[in-house]
Amino acid sequence: MITIDAAGMHYKELNRLIREGIANGVKKFFLENVNGQYYIGDGIKGDDVVININGIPGNDLGAFMDGPTLIVNNNAQDNIGNTMNAGKIIIKGDAGDVVGYGMRGGRIYILGNAGYRVGIHMKGYNEQLPVIIIGGKIGSFFAEYMAGGVIVLLGLGLEDYDELDSDYFASGMHGGTIYLRKKIDFSKYSKEAELYEADEKDMDFLKKYLTDYADSFNIQAEEIYKKPFYKIVPSSARPYAHLYTSA
N or C end: fewer C-beta atoms under 10 angstroms in the chain? Predict the structure, then answer.
């Protein structure tokens, strides 16, 4: 275990120290006074590596990451988990824009809200299943061009269904599944995706992830299940084929 005081430190130096530590067998890191340093955790490997971050990390946290766990005890900025392969990112506050862009595996858990373009171009890779769970609400272009994986939008503490609404919701979605803890009026969104009430099989599938999410933030899983879940899926295996082929 090592502690690194990142106050005033250039992001290149901080990331060099982390990589050197991993190369020398360090499994647990505590980063103190982080203030906008980019690329923390990018491309690193190791299922048993845990990086605790006190402060607010900069853009591209955990990009291309392949196994470690990052725990942010605050808010985080944009591009979290960009093209992430495996591992877990836990945000104990709000997250910025473009969470999980092109994400291919692993899990991103956000206690609070997330910004615009969450999960765009998200996809599974081989047997990997990327999962994003958001405790609050989201901005526009949510799940834009989503091609695979799972996004769960909980809306914890929100009483108004409209608060889960956003412009261009699931625009261009052609794969994967979105689960919502509250029903929304989906009729004004994509005509190539459909909303259904989640069934018992869906809830059995979600249980593992929701339990892990609750444990990550020390909240009661039972609170999450107090309201029904709904799911959004593409209407067919190739929902946009008609746009490119003639009758």
Answer: C
